[in-house]
C-alpha cells in the first residue's frame, strides 16, 4: 500500500493507528509454504501472540493456517475465530496443571515444557496425545530477551534430561505424538536451525509413536532498507532434504510444523502517529508524537529499530530528528534519525509494526489503546475501535459511598 493510502486512513480513523496489509500477510504465508513444498506434510501454525486481533486470525485461518497459542485466553480467541480444536497448538510456560487440564478439555494439542507437569499430566491422562518441548541449549536470537533455547532459559525440558523424560513416559504410558523446540527470534544464520534440528532428530529417536516434529520459528525479517533477513528458500531446501531423510530413517512420514509469528505479520504492519510538537534544544531536534511506549514498546524493550517516514512530506529535505513519545519518562523511538522535514501535524509512519506492537500495548499513564485497520482489496476495514474513557473504566469499581465519606 502507498503513503497516500496511509495518510487517508489516519485522517479517516484518527491517530495513533495501526494498519495491516492483508496481501503482505498472504504473500509471507505462501512464501514459507513454497520454501518447504518438498515436504509432503507441512503445517504452519501462526504464533498469535505476535498479533491476536480476531480478524487477523480469521484471515490466516482462511489460508489454511493453524494456531500456536501460549495461554488459555489465546486458545479461546482461536476457537472464537473459527479454528477447529485440532488446528490449535497450546504451548504454555509456567502455568498451573489446572489451566492445562482446562485447555485439554477443549480438545486442542497440548505441548508440555517441564518434567513436573509432564509426570502429573501423564499420570492423570495417559491416553491424551501430548507434545514435549525440548530445550536444545542453542543460544540464538537477536536479543537476550528473545533467546529462549539456551541453557539458562526457563523454556523447555533440557535435552540433557532426556533419560529422565523417557522414564516418565515409560512409567505413565503417555502417548507422545510430537517433539517441539524454539530457540529464539530474529535468527539470521540458517546453520543454527540446521544444528538445532539435528538435536531434535536425535531426541525424536527415543519416541516410537511420533506424528510430527515442530521446529518453532524465529526467522529474521528486514527492518530497514537493505537489511539482512533469514534466507527462507535456502533453509527450506536444506531442512526439507534432511527432514525427509529422517522420516525414512524413522520409518514413518511425519508432519513438519513451523510456528511463525513475526515472519507472517511484521512487515504487514504500519503504525501511524501525529506530530504534536517539534522541539529544538541546544543539541537536538525532537519530534514529539501523540503516542509512546504504551503503544509501541519494542524500541525501548528490545532496542529494535523501526524505519520511520514522514508520509505527510515524503519528498522533503531530510533532517536529523529524535522521535519521542508523550509518556512521563524516557520514551524514545529513535535518536538522530534522518527523516524528511517534520512539521507539527504531520503523520509519521513506523514500519514493521505488525508483530509484538499492538499486542504489547498498555494503558500506561491511563492512555487509550489505538484503533486497528486491515487494508484488504484496496480498502481499509476497521477491526478494532479506538478505546474510550468508558473502556478505561469498564472493570474499575469505585469505593462505596459510605466508605468514601469516611
Automatic annotation (TrEMBL):
Keywords: Amino-acid biosynthesis, Decarboxylase, Lyase, Lysine biosynthesis, Pyridoxal phosphate. InterPro entries: Ala_racemase/Decarboxylase_C, DAP_deCOOHase_LysA, De-COase2_C, De-COase2_N, De-COase2_pyr-phos_BS, Orn/DAP/Arg_de-COase, PLP-binding_barrel. It comes from the Bacteria. Its EC number is 4.1.1.20. Pyridoxal 5'-phosphate binds at residues 218, 356. The keyword Amino-acid biosynthesis applies. Coiled coil: none annotated. Pathway: Amino-acid biosynthesis; L-lysine biosynthesis via DAP pathway; L-lysine from DL-2,6-diaminopimelate: step 1/1. The active site is at residue 328. Its cofactor is pyridoxal 5'-phosphate. GO terms for biological process: lysine biosynthetic process via diaminopimelate. Substrate binds at residues 298, 302, 329, 356. The modification N6-(pyridoxal phosphate)lysine is found at residue 49. The keyword Transcription does not apply. One of its GO terms (molecular function) is pyridoxal phosphate binding. Residues 18-354 form the Orn/DAP/Arg decarboxylase 2 C-terminal domain. It catalyses: meso-2,6-diaminopimelate + H(+) = L-lysine + CO2. NCBIfam families: lysA. Specifically catalyzes the decarboxylation of meso-diaminopimelate (meso-DAP) to L-lysine. Homodimer. Belongs to the Orn/Lys/Arg decarboxylase class-II family. LysA subfamily. This is Diaminopimelate decarboxylase. It comes from Flavobacterium weaverense.
Amino acid at each position: 500500500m502507498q503513503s497516500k493510502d496511509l495518510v487517508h486512513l489516519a485522517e479517516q480513523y484518527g491517530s495513533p493507528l495501526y494498519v495491516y496489509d492483508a496481501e503482505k500477510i498472504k504473500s509471507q504465508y505462501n512464501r514459507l509454504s513454497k520454501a518447504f513444498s518438498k515436504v509432503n506434510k507441512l503445517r504452519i501454525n501462526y504464533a498469535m501472540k505476535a498479533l491476536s486481533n480476531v480478524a487477523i486470525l480469521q484471515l490466516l485461518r482462511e489460508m489454511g493456517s493453524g494456531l500456536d497459542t501460549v495461554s488459555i485466553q489465546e486458545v479461546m480467541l482461536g476457537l472464537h475465530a473459527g479454528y477447529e480444536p485440532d488446528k490449535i497448538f497450546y504451548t504454555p510456560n509456567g502455568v498451573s496443571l489446572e489451566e492445562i487440564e482446562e485447555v485439554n478439555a477443549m480438545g486442542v494439542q497440548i505441548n508440555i515444557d517441564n518434567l513436573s507437569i509432564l509426570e502429573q499430566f501423564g499420570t492423570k491422562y495417559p491416553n491424551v496425545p501430548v507434545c514435549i518441548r525440548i530445550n536444545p541449549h542453542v543460544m540464538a536470537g537477536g536479543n537476550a530477551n528473545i533467546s529462549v533455547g539456551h541453557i539458562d532459559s526457563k523454556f523447555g525440558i533440557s535435552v540433557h534430561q532426556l533419560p529422565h523424560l523417557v522414564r516418565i513416559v515409560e512409567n505413565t504410558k503417555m502417548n507422545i505424538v510430537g517433539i517441539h523446540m524454539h530457540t529464539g527470534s530474529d535468527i539470521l544464520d540458517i546453520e543454527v536451525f540446521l544444528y538445532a534440528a539435528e538435536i531434535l532428530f536425535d531426541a525424536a529417536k527415543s519416541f516410537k509413536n511420533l506424528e510430527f516434529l515442530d521446529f518453532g520459528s524465529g526467522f529474521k525479517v528486514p527492518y530497514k532498507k537493505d537489511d539482512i533477513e533469514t534466507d527462507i528458500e535456502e533453509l527450506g531446501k536444506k531442512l526439507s532434504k534432511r527432514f525427509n531423510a529422517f522420516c525414512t530413517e524413522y520409518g514413518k512420514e511425519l508432519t513438519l510444523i513451523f510456528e511463525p509469528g513475526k515472519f507472517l505479520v511484521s512487515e504487514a504492519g504500519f503504525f501511524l502517529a501525529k506530530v504534536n510538537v517539534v522541539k529544538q534544544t541546544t543539541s537536538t531536534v525532537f519530534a514529539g508524537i501523540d503516542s509512546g511506549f504504551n503503544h509501541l514498546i519494542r524500541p525501548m524493550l528490545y532496542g529494535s529499530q523501526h524505519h520511520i517516514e514522514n508520509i505527510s512530506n515524503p519528498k522533503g529535505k531530510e533532517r536529523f530528528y529524535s522521535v519521542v513519545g508523550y509518556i512521563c519518562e524516557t520514551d524514545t523511538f529513535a535518536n538522530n534519525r534522518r527523516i524528511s522535514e517534520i512539521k507539527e501535524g504531520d503523520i509519521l509512519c513506523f514500519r514493521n509494526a505488525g508483530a509484538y506492537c499492538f499486542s504489547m500495548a498498555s494503558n500506561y499513564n491511563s492512555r487509550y489503546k489505538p484503533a486497528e485497520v486491515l487494508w484488504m482489496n484496496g480498502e481499509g476495514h476497521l477491526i478494532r475501535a479506538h478505546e474510550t474513557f468508558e473502556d478505561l473504566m469498564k472493570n474499575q469499581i469505585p469505593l462505596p459511598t459510605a466508605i468514601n465519606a469516611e
